[in-house]
Amino acid sequence: MSLRTRVLLAMSVIATVVLGGAVLTTRLAEQRLMDQIDDRLTGVPAFFGRGFAPPAGQAPDPRFDDSQRPRGFNEFYLAQINQSGTVVARSRPNISRRSLPAPVIDVARARQSARAIPPKPYTVAARTTDLRYRVLARAEPTTGDIFLLAAPLSAVDASTSEIQSIAWGVAGLALAVLALVTWWVLRLGVRPLKRMASAAVTVGEDDLGRRVPDAPVGTEAGDLSRSINNMLGRIEESFSARAATDARLRRFVGDASHELRTPVQTIRGYSELYAAGALGETAALDDAMRRTGQESVRMATLIDDLLTLARFDQHRPLQSAPVDLLALASDALADAHAIQPGRTTTIETTGAGDPVVSGDEHLLRQVFANVIGNALVHTPSTSSVTVTIATDEETVTVTIADAGPGMDAETATRAFERFVRADPARTREHGGSGLGLAIAHDAVEAHGGSVTLRSDLDGGTVVEVRLRR
User: Fold this and answer.
1) How much is the mean pLDDT over the chain?
2) Domain boundary among 110, 141, 160
3) Residue 189: predicted pLDDT
4) Are 264 and 299 in contact (CB under 8 A)?
5) Residues 310, 380: one domain?
6) Nearest alpha carbon to residue 366 among 414, 311, 294, 420
7) Number of compact structural domains in the chain
8) Please, are residues 11 and 178 in contact by the beta-carbon 8 Å criterion?
9) Taking residues 295-301, what's their average pLDDT?
10) What average pLDDT does this structure show over 409-417?
């Protein structure tokens, strides 16, 4: 059963209760007024004029006789049914200053009611009008005549009609309010839920960009719509990240295969030449073995780099220990000077305290080696390389700047991507695999730090590494 059906069913039950309460209130009020009339009828002295006998076991009341019976004003209808069944009216009610029509008397019913012990009043209609009477019949034990005492129900009917009007008016107002509440609940509660369900079906059909409509703030539907939209946003981000990861993985596999193809083909080519006897001369064989060894070393280096990046992708925990960045930078510059003795390299420190951070010394050493090595490969040997280490209370910032030709804006923004080279035409033998800066970037981020690159075609390249102490 849907929520809308449940709400409508509940409101229908409440409406039924309201209408039943109005009907019950009217009936109870009418019955109460009728009981009051019955009490008045049974409380009137039994002897009210000649021929009226007292109830069984009571003596006649001498205060009432024909001479004492009130004349000119009477609220009761008095009548007598003789042995022949003739109804003789003794008095008619004239409380409204006019004589009211007599009630319609059924002789058989009157005699039957008079025989009841005690006699009980009953209701009859009046002649020619819609007036009703409440009639009490009593039998005269000596003569067998039936004496009738009747009271008009005009006041009861008027009061009942007024109470009924008030009850139905209140019930109508309650139903109107109930209908308004029902409409409000369905509009604020059920209708937004139906729209959410429709939107969810669309989202389930791979439209992750779809969002459920917003519901009024402060309502359960509003909270639900915002929660669903937040969830859909995270799901869309997750799927987008997954798609980007898949694309990155496919590109990575393709680039890795492309990088490995060259050394493998080189080694294979020399092995085929040797098998064909084309390397019979000692010089040719020595050169082939030298080139095979170089390609093997380059292929092993590439594989090590790929394994390092794979470990970063797996988010493996690092081996943490205190690492002195000044010592690592000094070692990297010493290695650079050994490779290119004519290049000018300097190191500067600023700030208070030792530039010591907590991290993996091997990875951080590789960061300095890759960044400085990248500067050695892509800048002339006459260009200087400067390392600046700034230390504060929370971080250590290492800036590695070279004075060589920089990169264009597009290459600079992609410098930390894998297999990206500043000069695509550069040979792999001298230009590297394009993984150095990517490894440096992932290693720094694995330590919870950040690395940025700024480059200008005329102003060189600056790499800034920031690590927490």
Assistant:
1) 79
2) 160
3) 65
4) yes
5) no
6) 311
7) 3
8) yes
9) 80
10) 84
